[in-house]
Amino acid sequence: MTLALHYALRSDVGLLREGNEDSAFAGPNLLAIADGMGGHAAGEVASAVAISALAPLDRQNLHESRAMLRALADAVASANSTLHEMSLADPSTEGMGTTLTALLWAGAQVALCHIGDSRAYMLRDGDFFQITRDHTLVQSLVDEGRLTPEAAATHPQRSLVVRALQSSTDAEPDLQMREAMLGDRYLLCSDGLSDVVTEQTLHKTLLSCPDPAQAVGQLIDLALRAGGPDNITCIVADVVDTVTGPVPPSDGEVLAGAAAAGDGRPRPLSDSPAGRAHLLTQDAQRAALGQTSIGQVRPLRPDGPPPPSQANGHHRRDEDDYDEDLAEVPRRRWPVVTSILVVLILLIVGGGYAAWRITRSQYYVDSDGGQVVIFQGIDQSVAGLHLSSIYKRTGIPVSHVQGSLLQLPTPSGSLSEAQTTVQNIKRTYACKQAGIAVQNWEKNKPKPSPSPSTSHKSSKKSSKTSRSRASSSPKTSTSKKPYPPKPPVPSYCAAQGSG
């Protein structure tokens, strides 16, 4: 039995991004996906560089596991060097980077290379697993037991990547070998899919779509229906038998996203209800602005050369006709110009109102007056006008945040995310104070009293002295104050103290 891959790849710019910063490659021996970071003219460059460095591995026919891992590591180092040289040549691209997740195949052997928060999943015998670990701040908190996976899924800083393939630092990817089995299905995706579609839905979709092309189409449509806030790229690959398999293995190399475009320009949106609705909205706006569907301004009216005069056989216009035309042009164009201005004003006002409504649905956590405060809006200013206002003062001193991994202000998100952040601050501080109280309690805990036998002997020796003192002084009853019980520790904290 010889194993091979039957795969499909697709990338979509999403509904809110102007360009596609994702890049991806799918070939008979290599699957790779990269999600660029760094903004305009940088993210798409970084992801395309990473894919270009890995793509030649698809044709090298590597078979030994150490050679496969070494080839992946060398390709990542080469991409890292290229990004560094590009940032030196063009300072505007400094800090650009990309995530990278790649699977290099040789029969049943699979070499995995991963850095960042793009993901690889495996579906085997109906069970669904994530086979990569996100290199994010939130994932590190989950690993340390300071955050639950459920809270991590909605954490406002869940996209804060702590390791990536960047121009400014050396890349340190995770490298490991895995073994494939006939019938396995693999999913590689950027966070434009995994951030908005739950793992349960991913699992259900991969189970219900037998063909990889159908699966990637359905997954991208799900991300678009969820709002499509980011570029969406995914690869679905089935492990098949080259001889007895019901479908033949794929044999072509496929590029997608910025690596395929070469310039990071927007790709056509998905042919889905969400995508078509977005296109209709864009077309309506372009029509109001006098633009074509590809962004070119249409002339207000056809302009051609003035009709020639045949008088005296010369191509000239009569002066009276010429003056009359000049007088008429403003009259003809004025209503059109007025209409365009009115439409522009309406679009600006409407857009401003829509932007205001959007900011009112955003919340973030920051400090004000020495305490932690939930703000409504976004932490930005336009023409000196702040786009946020105080929603709720929590009464928590800012000192409670000091020493934690949380940075203020937090990124804007939903109200529930802001409330969760405040709750985490309270709990973290409460656990810290409880730990200090337990330590002090342990430190000041009195030593055990002497044994009864020792106490009895010493009491005999001092009985006479005690009786004599008792006869000369009034009787007093002294009782030793009991030591307080161990301070309580909230149930959500890690265990504090030992006894």
Commentary on this structure:
It contains 13 helices and 16 strands. With 499 residues, it is an alpha+beta fold. Strands 2, 3, 4, 5, 6, 9, 10 and 13 form an eight-stranded antiparallel sheet that branches. The chain has a five-stranded antiparallel sheet with strand order 1-12-11-7-8. A three-stranded antiparallel sheet has the order 14-15-16. β5 (100-106) and β6 (109-115) form a beta hairpin. α1 (43-54) packs antiparallel against α2 (65-89) and α6 (199-208) runs antiparallel to α7 (212-225). The model is unreliable at 263-270, 274-282 and 284-333 (pLDDT under 50).
Short description:
This protein is an alpha+beta fold and 499 residues long.
Any key phrases for this structure?
alpha+beta, 8-stranded antiparallel beta sheet, globular, 13 helices, 499 residues
Stretches where pLDDT falls below 50 for ≥5 residues? Answer: 263-270, 274-282, 284-333
Radius of gyration: 34 Å
By DSSP (H or I, 4+ residues per run), the number of helices equals 13
Roughly how many Å apart are the termini? 61 Å
Please provide the count of β strands.
Answer: 16
Beta-strand fraction estimate: 15-25%
Q: What best-fitting shape do the alpha-carbon axes yield?
A: globular
* Helical residue percent band: 25-40%
Structure classification:
alpha+beta
Mean of pLDDT = 79
| Pattern of helices and strands | EEEHHEEEEEHHEEEHHHEEHHHEEEHHH
Largest sheet: 8 strands, antiparallel
